[in-house]
Each structure stands twice: as C-alpha cells, then as structure tokens.
Task: inverse folding
C-alpha cells in the first residue's frame, strides 16, 4: 500500500517501445523501491497481468524475479534498491516483459528530489492511452490490429483508387471551376456526352432522353421576398456508372457555390442590422469598408466588411470607428475546419493532411496553415485540462 515517506523521490517516465501513438506512464517512486516492487508497480500502471517472464537491464546488467524454469539473476530483487544505482537525472534503463513478444519499456529518470509533505508512493501522476492487450501478439500485431480500419488506412486506399489511370472520357475537374456567385454555369458532363454551349432552358440531345438538373439556393428572411440564386446546372443522358449521381468534382463545385451564396447573404444581413446603434437606435455613419478572408470547409470566402463611425451616444474614449463583421469573426476560420485539420494532422503528416482535405473538399490549404491551426487547437485543449490530478496505485 502506498504510504508517506521521507526518502528521495524518483520521477520515472516509462514509455512502451515500438508503439505509436505513444503509450506512457509517469510514476513517482522512492529511492528505497526495490527491483521487485518496481516490477509490480509497472505491471499495475500498464494493466499487465504478470503472467510472463520479465527483466530489467540497468547499466548493462540484468535484474528481475527468477521463476522455476525461467531465467535466473545474480542479485536478489527484494534487496536491490534504486538508490544502489546512484542514478542521475536523464539516465535511462529498460524493462522487458514477455520474452516471446516482447514488450519493451524505456524508463527515464526525469527528476530526483525531496518528497512533498504527505507525499505517498508509488503513485502514477500522468500517462497517455491504454496499454495493448497482453496476448495480442506484440507491437507490430497490435499496430496492424489498430490500423486495419484506421482512418489513415482508409484514406490511403481512397487515394490509391483516385490515382488509378482515368479514361479519357472522364476528365478530372478541379474546385477552381466553381461558378461565379449568382450566375448559372453549366458543369461539364462526361466527355462522351459532348456538352455544348446553350443558354438556360435550351435542350441538348445526343441520342436518348436528356435530364437537366438545376441546383438553386432559396434564401428567405422574415417578410422579405425570397432570393433565388441558381448555382449550377448539370445534364445527364444515358445512365451509366460514370453518369450516376454526382461526381466528386461536381459535388465540390456545388458545395463551394452554395457556401458562397449563403455566407454572402448572411454577412450582408448582419452588416445591415449593424447600421443602427444598438444603444440608441440611431443610424450610424459609414466610414468605408475593407475585405476580410474567412476560411471554411467549403472554400475561402472574401467578405466586404463595412466600417461605421462612432455614434454620438458612445463615450468619447471609445474607438472612433468599428467594423462589426470583422469583430464577429475574429478567428477567420470556421470551427469545423479547425477540427478536421487538427484531427487529420494528429494522424498523418501535414502535407498528407493538406492533400486529403483538398482532394475531398473544395478548400485551399497549405502546410503552414494546418500546422498553425493544429497548434492553436492543441493549446486550447491543453488549457482546458486544468491541473494534473494524481492517480494512486496501491499494492
């Protein structure tokens, strides 16, 4: 059982080798801890069952508990203490469990210091992730088991399919083909349908029945007349696997157009509502406007942000002008985009993250932006964790 003590405290960081993401524990033990006690503490901290042989390798010598039919050790594990090794901060040694697999642990001396008043030991004060199933076959089998349906494996298979040679009848379209806001632009159908220039409502036939699909966005706000905007027109003829439903390029183009139309109306409505002073209701004078850039999952948006002069009812020491839209969108990046960038950046390199997001969504990104957003999300999550709470290990 963990008890208060006055012996020096060793802070150990124990990392499971050859496993990614890292699985580790941070333990506080006394200098009087024996090899046998340290073995039992590690078993509890990682959730092992102590069903296999083990050994420590410290300064080139092997230590551990000997079992009948197993390896033997020159020293009694109940008499060898950590203090006997005269460790210095930063020194490392290893712990190996289950010689058939094996599970190797790297142990590093992070700190050596006097115990705090009422300090109990041994105690686990930090760590990350659960240990692997003991009988899963070792680190490589564990990683293969985890990554069979891992998102990265799925993405790699999808990208492999996208990299296959494409027939000339299905040219690849880019998100840059997005139609201009408010205009009806025809999305090019597969090559074998030979799209021709035609105005709205024109019939295009190359054998078979023609299907024409018009995608519209209808914006309604209170008693205001509805605003109808055509964002895209598609044409389909004979049903084949190539013409069934939307292609990825078409879906990206439509998403980008809908997003642009919707956000432009939202920004315009918000800016119009801010023309009156929220305190006295008087109409504020407009000083000018500037453009702000907002990054979303479905494209980079450029919005006109008007600037209004200070109302007469406001204190004299308040800012002489303000831009309500810019103040409403201070981060310039939508939360969902930050979430996806941080999620995928935690699973794969930044460059691959950019390629995957750009392949599947109508957005433009670069490594520096993804890195910065992932770092900001990590710092915010780190700040929300609060103080580290110790977990006591009794035995």
Result:
């Amino acid at each position: 059982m963990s008890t208060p003590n006055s012996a020096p405290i060793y802070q150990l960081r124990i990392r499971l080798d050859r496993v990614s993401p890292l699985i580790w524990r941070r333990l506080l033990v006394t200098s009087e801890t024996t090899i046998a006690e340290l073995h039992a503490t590690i078993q509890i901290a990682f959730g092992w069952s102590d069903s296999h042989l083990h050994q420590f390798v410290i300064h080139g010598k092997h230590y551990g508990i000997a079992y009948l039919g197993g390896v033997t050790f020159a020293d009694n594990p109940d008499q060898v203490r950590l203090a006997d090794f005269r460790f210095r901060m930063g020194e490392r040694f290893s712990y190996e469990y289950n010689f058939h697999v094996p599970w190797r642990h790297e142990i590093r001396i992070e700190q050596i210091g006097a115990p705090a008043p009422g300090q109990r030991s041994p105690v686990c004060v930090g760590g990350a992730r659960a240990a692997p199933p003991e009988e899963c076959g070792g680190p490589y089998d564990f990683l293969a088991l985890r990554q069979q349906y891992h998102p990265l494996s799925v993405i790699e298979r999808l990208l492999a399919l996208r990299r296959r040679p494409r027939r000339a009848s299905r040219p690849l379209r880019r998100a840059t083909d997005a139609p201009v806001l408010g205009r009806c632009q025809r999305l090019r159908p597969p090559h074998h349908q030979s799209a021709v220039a035609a105005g709205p409502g024109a019939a295009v036939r190359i054998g078979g029945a023609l299907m024409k699909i018009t995608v519209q966005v209808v914006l309604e706000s209170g008693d205001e007349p509805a605003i109808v905007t055509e964002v895209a027109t598609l044409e389909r003829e004979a049903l084949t696997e190539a013409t069934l439903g939307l292609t990825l390029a078409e879906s990206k183009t439509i998403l980008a157009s809908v997003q642009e139309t919707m956000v432009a109306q939202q920004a315009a409505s918000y800016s119009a509502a801010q023309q009156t002073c929220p305190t006295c209701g008087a109409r504020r004078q407009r000083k000018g406007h500037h453009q702000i850039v907002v990054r979303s999952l479905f494209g980079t948006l450029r919005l006109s942000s008007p600037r209004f002069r200070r109302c007469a009812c406001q204190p004299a020491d308040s800012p002489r002008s303000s831009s309500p839209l810019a103040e409403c969108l201070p981060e310039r990046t939508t939360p969902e985009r930050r979430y996806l960038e941080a999620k995928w950046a935690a699973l794969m390199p930044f460059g691959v993250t950019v390629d995957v997001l750009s392949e599947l969504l109508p957005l433009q990104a670069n490594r520096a932006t993804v890195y910065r957003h992932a770092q900001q999300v990590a710092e915010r999550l780190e700040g929300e964790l609060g103080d580290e709470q110790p977990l006591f290990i009794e035995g």
Observations:
- The two ends are 5 Å apart (CA to CA).
- Confidence is low (pLDDT under 50) at residues 168-208.
- DSSP finds eight helices and 15 strands in the chain.
